[in-house]
């Protein structure tokens, strides 16, 4: 059959097979007609159809083309049954035996002709008729392999939850389906990403149709204002080893409920308006926000007339929160108006909150005092040295009022801010001087904000204010400080010059050149500082020359850190360097020649000479050569 396929194709093979079948029937007729006992009549064919053997074979799907499935007559032929090959092959109609299987009728061998797929066809059936005439019904069953991953019907699914949905509420998700059977079918689901704060969990159950159905459950509390949407990647896994996987993205929209009341950006508002303001003049704008969405987050404003402004002197725009003059104002009648403003959302059950608005009506007074400040620093900028002593001048202040006919108006001037470090002095209530009241320290506070307030003598008085942003300049009043009082380092005795030992660091709280640090080693003979050197900028200590543990095993270095101030300030730190010994010295006798006289009758074992070493290097025991 294989040869026929390669030369002529499947159509030629089919013609040849039909010819072989006809020849086979003729041979069988001849055989039955020559049967002893006159059994060549119709009774012979009845006996042929009366007996049938069943041969069941199994093959895994996905085996390569040409894979041997088995033999038809294996283990079934006997004296009264299958006589073995050759066979007449009669496929069961619709079983695709001809297209999918290659059957050698001369041997009974069955092989695959195509790649088998259990999901498309799970079995093949045929009848094989040997020379003995006993039918052999052959069933080839295709065994399942894990060749199909779980597949969701759609790659993306969208659902919605109200943000007040209780815990454990479920939504059914599209389940994954797997064409494989048994343990190769879908076995479990998991959320692989997007589950912020573990807000959801999965549950599943298998129905009678074998599908593992999937539900999404609320695992915590939802808050649209915190997380308005989730995008979960849900994964389905079968029971293969390794398992095959399929994924689906579940887009979850959190629906808003009216669970947030409007919030004003201030709990209390202050404004002033002149008494001659015309109707419709804007006084101020209140503003509230609502974190909810849609109508639940739309804010409307109103004045609570039962608690405030019963005379309706002011009105408010419901949409923008702009408060404007609604009736003529009179300073002499009422100077201060207190309003209770309500912000309410447009939810089905609206939530609201209130804020207080204080509106002060001012008397018509056209001009406020004018404040002039001259700074007394060397470049007339707002600065003062931290070395300034109490009583030193910072700035000169003069105030005039255009409404006054005199050159210097009779205006009261006050100073606020500065945390008590600055004060205000005057001799004639005309010229004011800002002075230092308490010592300054730039390292503690480098900047001050002073507020000069001028009040005229009008009725009512008008006020003017001017802020002074004062900078405290640095002096070199802080010496560098080492991170440690004592540093410990280790170095081998055989270290080459230039070997890194330790890096020390000092900081200076001053700024600019006053904080730039230069490092150096103090040259003290008893510390062997000539063995070491230090980088003046980085503070890295390295060896300058060869060091000797026997001379000094723990030399003590004094490091000085000096800033670039005028005059410079400095501090010192101690570095204890432990030099680890190596065997670099051989033993030395205390003298190079010994002369001893011994009497000839000296007794055995008597000591005649004792030698000693002048110095030795600590070392492991060793044999001294003779």
From TrEMBL:
<keyword id="KW-0325">Glycoprotein</keyword>
<dbReference type="GO" id="GO:0005886">
    <property type="term" value="C:plasma membrane"/>
</dbReference>
<protein>
    <recommendedName>
        <fullName>Cadherin domain-containing protein</fullName>
    </recommendedName>
</protein>
<keyword id="KW-0732">Signal</keyword>
<keyword id="KW-1133">Transmembrane helix</keyword>
<feature type="domain" description="Cadherin">
    <location>
        <begin position="265"/>
        <end position="371"/>
    </location>
</feature>
<keyword id="KW-0812">Transmembrane</keyword>
<keyword id="KW-0677">Repeat</keyword>
<dbReference type="InterPro" id="IPR015919">
    <property type="entry name" value="Cadherin-like_sf"/>
</dbReference>
<dbReference type="GO" id="GO:0005509">
    <property type="term" value="F:calcium ion binding"/>
</dbReference>
<feature type="domain" description="Cadherin">
    <location>
        <begin position="153"/>
        <end position="264"/>
    </location>
</feature>
<dbReference type="Pfam" id="PF00028">
    <property type="entry name" value="Cadherin"/>
</dbReference>
<dbReference type="GO" id="GO:0007156">
    <property type="term" value="P:homophilic cell adhesion via plasma membrane adhesion molecules"/>
</dbReference>
<feature type="domain" description="Cadherin">
    <location>
        <begin position="483"/>
        <end position="589"/>
    </location>
</feature>
<dbReference type="InterPro" id="IPR002126">
    <property type="entry name" value="Cadherin-like_dom"/>
</dbReference>
<dbReference type="InterPro" id="IPR020894">
    <property type="entry name" value="Cadherin_CS"/>
</dbReference>
<dbReference type="InterPro" id="IPR050174">
    <property type="entry name" value="Protocadherin/Cadherin-CA"/>
</dbReference>
<keyword id="KW-0472">Membrane</keyword>
<keyword id="KW-0106">Calcium</keyword>
<dbReference type="GO" id="GO:0007155">
    <property type="term" value="P:cell adhesion"/>
</dbReference>
<dbReference type="GO" id="GO:0050839">
    <property type="term" value="F:cell adhesion molecule binding"/>
</dbReference>
<dbReference type="GO" id="GO:0060429">
    <property type="term" value="P:epithelium development"/>
</dbReference>
<feature type="domain" description="Cadherin">
    <location>
        <begin position="51"/>
        <end position="152"/>
    </location>
</feature>
<dbReference type="GO" id="GO:0009653">
    <property type="term" value="P:anatomical structure morphogenesis"/>
</dbReference>
<feature type="domain" description="Cadherin">
    <location>
        <begin position="384"/>
        <end position="482"/>
    </location>
</feature>
<keyword id="KW-1003">Cell membrane</keyword>
């Amino acid at each position: 059959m294989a040869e026929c396929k390669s030369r002529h194709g499947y159509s030629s093979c089919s013609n040849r097979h039909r010819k072989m079948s006809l020849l086979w029937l003729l041979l069988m007729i001849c055989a039955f007609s020559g049967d002893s006992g006159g059994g060549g009549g119709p009774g012979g064919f009845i006996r042929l159809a009366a007996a049938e053997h069943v041969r069941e074979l199994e093959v895994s799907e996905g085996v390569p083309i040409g894979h041997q499935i088995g033999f038809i007559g294996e283990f079934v032929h006997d004296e009264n049954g299958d006589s073995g090959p050759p066979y007449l092959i009669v496929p069961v109609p619709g079983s695709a035996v001809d297209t999918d299987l290659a059957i050698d009728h001369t041997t009974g061998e069955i092989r695959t002709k195509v790649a088998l797929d259990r999901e498309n066809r799970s079995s093949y059936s045929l009848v094989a008729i040997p020379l003995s005439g006993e039918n052999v019904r052959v069933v080839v069953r295709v065994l399942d392999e894990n060749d199909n991953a779980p597949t969701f019907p759609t790659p993306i699914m969208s659902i919605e939850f109200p943000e007040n949905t209780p815990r454990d509420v479920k939504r059914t998700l599209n389940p994954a389906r797997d064409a494989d059977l048994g343990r190769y079918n879908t076995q479990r689901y998991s959320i692989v990403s997007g589950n912020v704060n573990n807000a959801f969990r999965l549950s599943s159950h298998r129905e009678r149709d074998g599908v593992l159905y999937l539900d999404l459950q609320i695992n915590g509390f939802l808050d649209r204002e915190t997380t308005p949407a989730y995008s979960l990647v849900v994964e389905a896994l079968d029971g293969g080893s390794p398992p095959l996987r399929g994924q689906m993205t579940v887009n979850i929209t959190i629906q808003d409920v009216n669970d947030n009341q409007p919030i004003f950006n201030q709990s209390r508002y202050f404004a002033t308006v002149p008494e001659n303001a015309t109707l419709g003049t804007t006084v101020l704008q209140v503003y509230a926000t609502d974190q909810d969405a849609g109508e639940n987050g739309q804010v409307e404003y109103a004045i609570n007339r039962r608690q405030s402004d019963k005379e309706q002197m002011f009105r408010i725009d419901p949409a923008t929160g702009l408060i404007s003059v609604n009736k003529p104002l009179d300073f002499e009648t009422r100077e201060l108006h207190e309003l209770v403003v309500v912000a309410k959302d447009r939810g089905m059950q609206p939530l609201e909150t209130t804020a207080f608005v204080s509106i002060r009506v001012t008397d018509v007074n056209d001009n406020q005092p004018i404040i002039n400040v001259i700074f007394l620093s060397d470049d007339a900028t707002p600065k003062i040295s931290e070395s300034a002593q109490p009583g030193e001048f910072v700035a000169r202040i003069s105030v005039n009022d255009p409404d006054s006919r005199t050159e210097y108006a009779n205006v009261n001037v006050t100073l606020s801010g500065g945390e008590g470090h600055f004060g205000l002095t005057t001799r004639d209530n005309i010229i004011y001087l800002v002075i230092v009241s308490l010592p300054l320290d730039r390292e503690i506070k480098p900047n001050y904000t002073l507020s000069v307030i001028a009040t005229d003598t009008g009725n009512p008085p008008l006020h003017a204010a001017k802020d002074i942003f004062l900078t405290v300049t640095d002096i070199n009043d802080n010496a560098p400080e080492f991170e440690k009082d004592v540093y410990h380092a280790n170095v081998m005795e055989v270290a080459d010059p230039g070997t890194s030992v330790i890096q020390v660091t000092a900081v200076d709280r001053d700024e600019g050149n006053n904080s730039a640090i230069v490092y150096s080693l103090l040259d003290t003979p008893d510390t062997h500082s000539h063995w070491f050197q230090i980088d003046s900028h980085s503070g890295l200590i390295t060896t300058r020359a060869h060091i000797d543990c026997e001379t000094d095993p723990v030399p003590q270095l004094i490091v000085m850190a000096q800033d670039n101030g005028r005059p410079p300030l400095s501090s010192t730190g101690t570095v204890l360097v432990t030099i680890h010994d190596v065997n670099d010295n051989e033993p030395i006798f205390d003298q190079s020649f010994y002369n001893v006289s011994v009497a000839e009758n000296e007794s055995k074992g008597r000591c005649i000479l004792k030698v000693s070493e002048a110095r030795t290097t600590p070392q492991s025991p060793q044999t001294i050569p003779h």
